[in-house]
Structures are given as C-alpha cells and as structure tokens.
Specification:
Helix content: 25-40%
Bound molecules: iron/sulfur cluster
Shape: globular
Radius of gyration: 20 Å
Strand order of the largest sheet: 8-9-10-11-12-13
Largest sheet: 6 strands, parallel
Number of helices: 14
C-alpha cells in the first residue's frame, strides 16, 4: 500500500487500498463467517466475485453465503470482499466489535461492515426469499435484477473467457441456493416496494446472460420493462441501467420507450481491440460482431442521449497471455484509444478491473498488477474531464465493486469538478 501510494500520491489512501484488495482478494478466515452472520452477505446476484471457490454447504444459508460481501473504509469507500487464500490481506477482530484490515502481519486500516438490511430475509407472497429476487451491497445503492440467469454461449463453449455466470449458478444450486432463471415482474415489484419501505434505492440494474437470437433477448428486456415501469410507486425517478448485448435500432428504440425516459443503455463490448474481442468474447464476436457492436453504441446515443449510453471493457484482460499485448505500454495505448473513441461519441467507457473468476475459461490466468489498473483509471478520469461527460447517474461508488473511478471523483474535487464548477459525479 505504501509503495502504491508513492506511485499515485494524488490518490486517497482508501482508493489505493480498495484497488489492491480488488486485485489480491482477502484470505478466508473464521472471522469472516462470524461477521457474515449479521453483515450484508455475499449474494452473487450474477457472478461469483471471489478469486477462488472456497465455499462449502456449511457456509451457505438459504439465500446467501455467510461471508460479508463488502466492507467499508473510514471515509465511506466500499470495497468488495473477494476471497483468495493466496492474498496477503486478512480481516482481524480488534476487540469490541472492531475490525482491521491486515497485510500479512501489518495493520493497514480499520474497516467497517454494514448490518444486513431486513428485507434480505423477508419473503414475497409466493414464499421466495427476497434476496433471491434482487441483490444489493447495502442501503441507498443498487437494486440489481438478473433478468436471465443463464447464457446461451455456455451451451456451445462460446462464453466470454472471464465469465462465470453459469458455473456460479451451478455452484449455488449445489450449495442449496436455488434461484429462478427468469426474473418475474410481480416478484421484483413486491421486493422493490419492500426495500423502499426500509431504505432508499439509488439506481436499478437490469442485466442477464446472452441469447444467440438478439431479437428474443430484446423482447425479454422490453417485456420486463413494460410490465414494471407503469407499476412503480408514484413519482419514482430512480434511474435504470439496462444491459443487453448490442441490439438493432428498432430494439434499442423499444427499450428506450419501455424505460419511460429513466433508462440508460449499456452494451458491454468486454474487449476493445479487434483481435482481443474475438478471443475474449467469442459468442458476441460471432453472433453480433465488433463492427455491429460499435455501430449500435454510436446509434444508441442518438436514441438515449449523450452520456446515457455506456459500454464496458474487462480491464486488464487485454494483457492476459497468450493473446494479450506484450507490454503494458501497448495495453495502455489500446485502453486510451477505447476511452477516446467512446468519449468523442458521448458514450461512457467503463473500465472494470478483471480478476480471474472460478469456473471461467481464464480462471488460472493472472491479471496485471494494481498499478496498471490505477494508471488506466487515471487515463479515464483525464479524458472524462477533457470531454466534460458526466459519470452516469445509474451507477454509484458504493456498488462499483470492481473499479475506483467513482471513489476518486467522490473524494477528490479536482477529478470531480470542472473549472466552471460543473460536477461530473452525482453521488458526491
Ligand atoms: S454474454 Fe459473455 S459476459 Fe454475458 S453472460 Fe454470456 S458469457 Fe457471460
């Protein structure tokens, strides 16, 4: 942490710690099981986020793994807790219900855990545990809906190389945490209203696995949005991020119309460079294609508006051997090209830190070091200022589990505010 802080003196210590904890994970210790009994637990709403699959039935409750999903640092920075027994990091009890993050035997920082909201353990009218219908890392944050808990690319070995959606669902089933493959609008609305009675919701995420028939995939999103939007509580203005694959113009327009003006659209491209896109996302490359993907992103800005279209690359995957770039300089050059291409067109280019996930094709491949990810984040922030494109209100720092750009904007005014006082970040 001290070395990283020397390399990035302008970044808050909490951001440096969060970035390194994302990259290296946290060791699995009995302390975590004790905290997991009352804190916001791991629910893995779509992917397994841990680096290693360390769970057994004894850790599993009916709807979650009895390990905390996140922890907070003193300035409110939220870090995801990814289990990894090779990590130097560990959380220790400091007595009096206080906890510290340790790096080997050195105390790094005091950490905090948010108590589990009550709605996690409530049930819908048909008896389903509410945290199986929607997920969240805590209060006043995301309400995450997995519309489709399966991806057809896994059926034919064409899944994205970093993705563990189907292995995660299989593992959860083995642990006795069965979830519905398709989200049901009635259940989701019931949970949404229950959550709002307990705490605010900052934004909603609607995503799921891919279908080879893109019209069918679009139909799923449109049908769900139509079934839900008109039945939300009166005056509800919570923004929605809708995340399908790249769709044709008619489908994009239908999603926009069904979202009643609250929608942001994300078509995650996953890998930027043409050659890498094919290797990293073979299903998307075959059934959509990079050219169509880029065209869909550009077109979506005309439908949803500047700053309301998002894409994503899995940051660091561009360096993964054997297909990745040979030097960090080349990787960073391609990453900057990605940022520039998107910002010039009014598209927000996400850069989420890749860490190898159990069950994914690249489960055993090492991601690049933390400093590479932080350097890429600073390139993003520099270009965001250059193009004056606000960070979308459909994403906040609390749920930004695998990146730190929103933490930096929240904590460092020079990255958040333009010279004329315009703020680039809504949740500061
Ligand atoms: S499209 Fe790719 S990232 Fe999305 S669920 Fe399927 S394999 Fe995973």
């Amino acid at each position: 942490v001290e070395k990283l802080q020397e390399l990035f003196p302008g970044l808050p210590r909490s951001v440096v710690i969060k970035a390194d904890v994302i990259r290296k994970g946290v060791r699995y210790t009995p302390n975590l099981l004790a905290i997991g009994k009352w804190a916001v637990p791991q629910v893995h709403y779509i992917f397994e986020w841990d680096h290693q699959d360390l769970h057994s039935k004894s850790d599993a409750a009916e709807g979650w793994i009895t390990v905390p999903g996140v922890f907070q640092l003193g300035d409110g920075t939220t870090a995801i807790l990814k289990l990894d027994n090779t990590s130097p990091y560990e959380i220790r009890n400091a007595g009096d219900a206080r906890y510290w993050l340790y790096c080997d035997d050195d105390p790094v920082e005091e950490v905090y855990f948010e108590p589990r909201p009550e709605w996690f353990a409530k049930r819908t009218r048909d008896g389903t545990l509410m945290c199986k219908v929607a997920a969240s890392p805590g209060r006043n944050c995301i309400f995450a809906i997995t519309l489709l808990g399966h991806c057809e690319y896994f059926n034919t070995g064409e899944q994205c190389v970093f993705c563990c959606l189907v292995p995660t669902a299989d593992k959860f089933r083995q642990l006795g945490i069965e979830k519905a493959v398709r989200a049901k609008a009635d259940q989701v609305l019931e949970v949404y209203e229950t959550v709002l009675r307990e705490h605010p919701i900052a934004h909603v995420n609607l995503t799921g696995g891919g279908l080879k028939d893109l019209r069918k995939e679009a139909e799923l999103y449109v049908g769900f949005l139509r079934a839900v939007m008109d039945r939300l509580p009166a005056g509800d203005e919570v923004p929605w991020l809708v995340i399908p694959q790249a769709l044709d113009e008619e489908s994009q327009k239908r999603i926009h119309e069904a979202g009643r003006g609250k929608g942001f659209l994300c078509h995650p491209i996953e890998g930027w460079d043409e050659r890498h896109f094919e290797v990293m996302a073979p299903g998307k490359a075959k059934y959509v294609g990079r050219r169509n993907w880029l065209a869909a992103l550009e077109r979506a800005v005309g439908i949803f508006g500047r700053g309301r279209v998002v894409t994503n690359v899995v940051g660091g995957l561009e360096m993964a051997p054997p297909h990745g770039f040979g030097s960090y300089a080349e990787g960073m050059k391609a990453t900057v090209e990605y940022f520039e291409w998107c910002f010039q067109r009014g598209i927000v280019p996400s850069y989420l830190f890749w860490t190898s996930a159990p069950g994914s094709v690249y489960a055993e491949v090492e991601p690049p070091p933390t400093e590479y990810m932080l350097s890429a984040t600073l390139e993003f922030l520099e270009r965001q200022r250059k193009y004056r494109l606000p960070f979308p209100a459909c994403v906040c720092h609390k749920c930004r589990a695998v990146s730190v750009e929103s933490d930096i904007m929240r904590l460092v005014p020079e990255y958040r505010l333009l010279p004329d006082g315009t703020s680039l970040y809504a949740y500061a």
